[in-house]
Amino acid sequence: CQNTCIITDSQATEDATKMGGVPEIASSLETPTLIQSSVITNVNWNMDQDRKMTALKQLQGHMWREGYSSGEIQGHLYEDVEEALKLWTSSGKKVYIYSSGSVEAQKLLFQHSVAGNLLQYFSGHFDTKIGLKIESASYQEISKSIAVAPDKILFLTDLPAEAIAANEAGVQVKLLVRPGNAPLNEETLQRFGICHNFKEI
């Protein structure tokens, strides 16, 4: 876990200068047990804050790799995902994933999904290295990266803040309303089209 600890320590040092209440990572001069305990405390704190930082997502990706490889966990998908991916790609459309989860985590989930390996249906993956999902510049960068004009891209999300950011970048947006999602206010419903499953797209 040496590389992971370096990533976490670097993030903790940066956080300490910007915000309060961040659990410190023990010095490399401390015992391995104390270092490990302090890293775990820091990681749990960041998870409790639901932070979308790259370092945390990379760590999660490393952990998931082991779980997926051993078969202990599988990527769970909505039932309409596999059929939609096949339909869209067979009709010439390209599908990309943009997630706060790392690219590695995305690939692991779809490679080891309950529906089998679905990686063949994706033309590319993006994570927070390209920018936060609530920043319009991120969607502009994705547009440049895949050489497709923003108004030719359809972005699907269940979070209004992401929908607003993508829309401000000129991207078409549909809000997905799935069981368990937070309710949407009237203003959001009027601003964006919604769909309840991929068959409605």
From TrEMBL:
GO MF annotations in UniProt: acireductone synthase activity; magnesium ion binding
Keywords: Amino-acid biosynthesis, Hydrolase, Methionine biosynthesis
Annotated CDD domains: HAD_EP (cd01629)
Entry-linked Gene3D superfamilies: HAD superfamily/HAD-like
Presence of keyword Hydrolase: yes
Listed transmembrane segments: none
GO biological process: L-methionine salvage from methylthioadenosine
UniProt entry tagged with the keyword Hydrolase: yes
Protein name per UniProt: Enolase-phosphatase E1
Organism for this UniProt entry: Daphnia pulex
UniProt lineage: Eukaryota, Metazoa, Ecdysozoa, Arthropoda, Crustacea
